[in-house]
Amino acid sequence: MELSSKKKYLQIAFNRNLDEVISMVEQLPCSPNIILEAGTPFVKKYGINGISTIKETRENICQTKAYIVADLKTMDRGEREVKEAKKAGASAVTCLGTAPIETIDAFLESCEKYKIDGAIDMLGVKFPFEVLQKLKKMPKIIILHLGVDERRNNREKIIPYHQINRIKGTYGKVLIAIAGGENPKDVLRAFFNDADIAIIWEKIYQNPKRIKEITLEFLKNIKK
Amino acid sequence: MKKEENKLSQKEFEKYKAKYQALLRFTIVFFSFGFFFPGFFLISLFLFILMIKTVPPEVRTRIIAEMEKSQQKTKTSRKENHLEPVLANQAQNNRLVFVEREPKKISVYDSYLESLRTEGPRIEKRQRYLHIALNSTLKEARKIISKIPTRKNIILEVGTPLIKTYGEDAISQIKYWTEGLYILADAKTSDLAEREVKMAKDAGASGITCLGTAPIETIDAFLESCEKYKIDSFLDMMNIENPLLVLKKLKKIPKVVMLHRGVDETEKNKEKVIPYYQIKQIKGSYNTLIAVAGGDTEREIQSAIFNDADIVVLWKDFYKYSPKTPERITKLLKKINKRESSLEIKTSYSLEYSGL
């Protein structure tokens, strides 16, 4: 499965225990607009095995190829982490925008080598352009991210929707993902501002049993 | 005469021996009393003559020779005991463990859980540490761990690649293999700080790292939860030009600040230098320990120590096990702390015998 720039996607991140995550994935509706993500705490807890179990359960249920994002948040050793993600069967890996430029370059290069989508997570980056200017290659996905701790402890910080069109205007082909909005309204706003992917996790994390209703509610906002 | 003496039966010899020994003891006792009351000298003299008269000289030499032999035996047996105290102790421990464990039916898994519950050591000030980062695979890590001595001044880091590939099991597994060593989880937290700190603590780590480039709110939450869960906080200043600017914004101060040059940076860009001058800058204004990571050459280790770094982080020599590894560790330990022999941790068993 490959992402196209004409579609809109809803990315759901899983961060609970392995058993709960498996049952949550089983309940998810089989829409082609849904992307699954193995969250950072989840990966750190279960390793790459966690990624491959998510992929297997999703593919078993929907009988189509699943798109799994491994949220590794690479900070160093770009090639090594991409290799591990590929081994687990992920379709995309994330790298931190605050990582050294050499690491991001190595990361994007090895993403091309292993044929996996590279995503750069702009968590903690004030001006994404400053990072993007220095890179040799462009990533497939750029994630504009408002951290959970930031959102909880600092009400003044907002998701930088205004950056979406600026980045798309200069770099064209990139897909933009928005993370940090948790309501259907936020997702709608993201898509309205021309984002391609909206990432949600907290609502589902809080009520894992209502996952189907919640995702259907979010999916309403996506034009097919 | 001689033939007769040689033909003496064992029983008679034993009798003579008992008599001789008893009389010898009495003479010695009375002789020593003689120092207080001179009359006892006479008695001891009388006993001595009696001893010589009752026991024939040939028998006497035989007795003396035998006594000397037995004395030598006791000496040598004592020496043997000195030679193998560890083995003896270990055997004892094993037996104790065995006796205790059999009725309760504690499995290997339970002892594994026990090792997780035991609190690891915490970092101390005024101590210089050797920080060994394990990054390749658990198999390789196990080989290296078996050669690491149990010292107070060693920090064993479970690297980010290990955590990401094996999950938190990597931390607990390594903790189980190394009894009593300091275990640092290099989680490189960048969001959801409290969850990751809790995970590291549950897995049995004594310290956890957080990225300095993470949002300030995350670092604050990280430091707070480190205090809450009683675990040492390491702030990794990778890709930060001026660490003081980050430290200024924080509500609390991390226990250790790591000045870090990444692997990709080191390999692809030879112009980047580790800013050793910042060690004294940070130490001057904040009460923290400083770790220096990314410099693996002999020269860089030397300059880190010279510039007053508290923790020297190394990974290149410990990525893959080679026969030179144990030698390298002892050399490094000597370089980092001259009185290192006093820092041995007393554990119930030594790693060399633990079957690793």
* Contiguous uncertain segments of 5+ residues of chain A: none
Discrete helix count of chain A: 11
Radius of gyration of chain A: 16 Å
CATH topology of the largest domain in chain B, by name, is TIM Barrel
Instruction: Write the CATH fold name of chain A.
Output: TIM Barrel
The SSE order of chain B reads HHHHHHEHEHHEHEHEHEHHEHEH
Average of pLDDT of chain A: 91
Q: Bin the strand percentage of chain B.
A: 5-15%
Structure description:
The complex is a heterodimer of chains A (224) and B (356). By secondary structure, chain A is an alpha/beta fold. Chain A has one domain: Aldolase class I (TIM Barrel, Alpha-Beta Barrel), CATH 3.20.20. Helix content of chain A is 46%, strand content 19%. With 356 residues, chain B is of the alpha/beta class. Chain B contains 16 helices and 8 strands. Chain B has an 8-stranded parallel β-barrel, surrounded by 7 helices. In chain B, helix 7 (138-145) links the parallel strand 1 (129-134) and strand 2 (154-158). In chain B, 34% of the residues are buried. The model of chain B is unreliable at 79-104 and 348-356 (pLDDT under 50). The chains are: A alpha/beta (224), B alpha/beta (356). At the A-B interface, helix 2, helix 3, helix 4, helix 5 and helix 7 of A face helix 8, helix 10, helix 11 and helix 13 of B.
